[in-house]
Amino acid sequence: MDPIELNQEFWNERWRNAETGWDVGYATDPIVEFMSKYENKNDKILIPGCGNAYEAEFLIEKEFTNIHLIDIATEAIEKLKAKFSKHNSINIICQDFFELDGQYDLMIEQTFFCALPPHRRKDYVKKAADLLTENGRIVGVLFDRNFEIQGPPFGGTKDEYLKLFEKHFEIKTMEKCYNSIPPRAGSEVFIELIKK
């Protein structure tokens, strides 16, 4: 049993108190590099637990047209609505990821997976597979380390992730991330997973 319940109120409190240590202030290089080479600008893209959604800002610059942001924290959602009010290519959803419906071609993973308690990880994999279209992908970074302090964030290892994802996904890439931000250097894996 988790000592704290990671519900909407927990995340709203983090936003209200500016306890947003996951927020680096920009779209990180692993996502930027991958999406710079991504060809289909009309693919339906989902960014779960999107926070300030710097990745979405980058995608707009690159002329992507179908971006969906979801976060459980109303505090984050209000900021996003103001930030993206003039962008028709952005759809903002205030909802629990596990209750989301729809079909997406690509899911960008940046600090959402590690915010979930480890006992929810199988649910995450199943839900992601349900939300993705045939040959849909998860792309992003996962922590490749364990944390001494009770999360979030919650860490893990490549071996754990391989076992977790292989039932529903082809593991195209899961390797040490060479272009992490400096504070996370050597402690992330880059993933590209294709729905089976």
Task: Explain how this protein is built.
- The protein is an alpha/beta fold.
- It is built from 6 helices and 7 strands, in the order ααβαβαββαβαββ.
- It has a 7-stranded mixed β-sheet, sandwiched between helices.
- α5 links the parallel β4 and β5.
- The radius of gyration is 16 Å and the shape is globular.
- The model has no long low-confidence stretch (mean pLDDT 92).
* Shape call: globular
How much helical structure, as a percent, in the residues? 25-40%
Strand content: 25-35%
Overall pLDDT:
92
Please tally the helical runs, counting DSSP H or I stretches of 4 or more residues: 6
N/C terminus separation:
32 Å
The residue ranges in which pLDDT falls below 50 over 5 or more consecutive positions are: none
CATH-assigned fold name: Rossmann fold
CATH superfamily: Vaccinia Virus protein VP39
Structural class: alpha/beta
Instruction: Please write the string of helix (H) and strand (E) elements.
Output: HHEHEHEEHEHEE
Keywords for this structure?
single chain; alpha/beta; seven-stranded mixed sheet; 6 helices; 7 strands; 25% strand
